[in-house]
Amino acid sequence: MTQIARASLIRLLSESGAQGLDPTAVSFLGADDLYAGPFQTGHVTGVALAAAALAHRPDARFTLDLDHAALMSEGYRHVLLDGQSVAAPRDPLTGFYDTSDGRQIFLHVNFPHHRQRALALLRAEPERRSLEQAIRAWTIPVLDAALMAAGAISAPVLAPDEWRDLTQKLPLVSIDKIGDSPPIHMETPRVIDFTRVLAGPTCGRLLAEQGADVTRIDNPLYPDLMSYRLDANRNKTELTLDLRAPDQREQLLHLIQSADVFLHAYRPGVAEREGLSAQALCAQHPGLIHASLSAYDEGTVFAGRRGFDSAVQAASGMAMVQGDGTASLLPTSPLDYAAGFLLAFGVNEALRRRAREGGSYRVRTSLARVASWIMDLRRTTALPENKERLAQMMAHHAQDSVTPMGVIRHIASPIF
User: Is 106 among the domain residues?
Assistant: First the structure.
């Protein structure tokens, strides 16, 4: 298991063009066997975190526990605030639904605005039976397009072969130099984190833990769930801005002008419409690192689609593999955490290149890239549930952080 993790780290460093990083500086341990199913959740979260640590401190040596890393992939579920759980249960309407053409669609309605959009389109009551009946009257292609146009979160349930036919093979992280600037080295890089929910904020959290000065921009229209906020936004300065107000949009642009890194999680094409594309911002601010994380990648049939970890599990074939032919979600959210750590790796590597040769950089990854990676790594035999050992490790690796909001208990870092 540890040899496979080392091979993945070597591949990640190579395909992203990272130079001067020694993969043997990371010692992996653990069997990555905590969670039921065929997927190596500790592998993807651990390797991504190892790369981010190496790019941040190229001369250091690290040890990383893959079992502990697997815990990170459901960290938000176990956050406590002053000893009390803040985890919200999954909305009972979120899940898999049959359509009239013998297929299934996954509907994600954990956030109120997505819930309202789906129910309004389907003219259904907010209860499971009504929604099942409404969805059963649609075919997948028509329903999927309608939900997407309505701004809801859904995904067709695909088999692995269908997913491969609709996607393209991309590196886990793309790091591209898109402009020139003098070399710039910052001991404490300034980061504007304009992301929400889990994957993007996890990137910002890791950069903050590594010493960056991170300002997280909150959207007043779409607040995060408390468990996401406490897990992914520790150690950040928080600021609420409504970009519909011209003065607050100008305030964001002013903040970006003095930043080293701008993080966003828009769908492909949306940043361009908002005037926040890599080309526009880097032209105004040479030396900026523009980092983006999306559910799906530009240039694919999924590009304009909204999505979260669970929706990409459905679309990528992961759900069908996890349920052995019956769609079922993984017990954790490895796509969110691995993608966040991968983006942090890309940012740290871009900061290294900027210090060495100057330039503006565009860094990209997606949940879809991580999904294809974890699908390639799946085991031939699914593992059974290991609840007792999981509970023991949760207790052993809990850590308290004192914050302005109170004492947050969370999963400690698996790298040391």
Answer: no
